[in-house]
């Protein structure tokens, strides 16, 4: 049984479903573009943007969007978990081809981690928004 209140659990589930759908729609748009179907690609992207908005509404309703420094700290914790625990564990349990995909994901995730650390550092040194 979940330790989250039911509403929070459902908002998290809804967010995950909408965010995953949006990513799938962007992938379909990329595929349509490669097939020479730019209008179909644009339609997929418009749908993806609408799905993103639905995901954001649920994330906000769940109280998961907070102050900039808290959001950055949360994002850093998530990236570290993914890099240090999630992907290494999954990599150990799959075939070589899939493990190679995860290696590529972790490489990009490490770049994300560095960017997030830099953003948090820059924000902590600023008196408002990031310096340009």
Helical run tally: 4
Shape: globular
Report how far the terminal alpha carbons are from each other.
47 Å
Order of helices and strands: HHHH
Q: How much helix is in the residues?
A: over 70%
Beta-strand fraction estimate: under 5%
How would a crystallographer describe the biggest sheet? none
Number-wise, the strands total 0
* Low-confidence runs of at least 5 consecutive residues: none
Structural class, please? Answer: mainly alpha
Mean pLDDT: 95
Q: How many structural units, i.e. domains?
A: 2
Model description:
The protein is mostly helical. Helix 1 runs antiparallel to helix 2 and helix 3 runs antiparallel to helix 4. It starts with 5 loop residues before the first helix and ends in a 7-residue tail after the last helix. The mean pLDDT is 95.
